[in-house]
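Figure 2 data, in text form.
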Amino acid sequence: MIPRSDAAAVPVNSGKELLITAGRTPGAMGRGTKSTEFFSLIAGKSRPGPDMPDSTYSHCMTGVNDTTVVVIGGRLHSRSTFFFDLPSGKWTIGPKTLHPR
C-alpha cells in the first residue's frame, strides 16, 4: 500500500475491496498523484490500479452503481469529474461541474 494523504476510497467488488485514488504521497512536494490501488479487505493486501487521467487530491469519490465510480473535484481539478468503469478497468473524463468542488 502506498502511503498517501488527502486520498479518497470507496468499497468495490461487492464490498470485498477498497478502490483508493490519488492523494498526496511522500516526496510529492505537495502535489497530487494520479495513482490508484485496490486494497483487499479479505487478504489485507493491495494491488496497483490504473492511473487516473490526471493528478488530484482532497477530492470526493462515490460509487454510481455496481460497476462505475465517479471522482469529483479536488485541489488540482476543482471542476473535473472522472469516471472509472470496474469491468474494463478504464477511466474516462466526465463533464465539468458548474462550480469548483
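Caption note: The radius of gyration is 13 Å.
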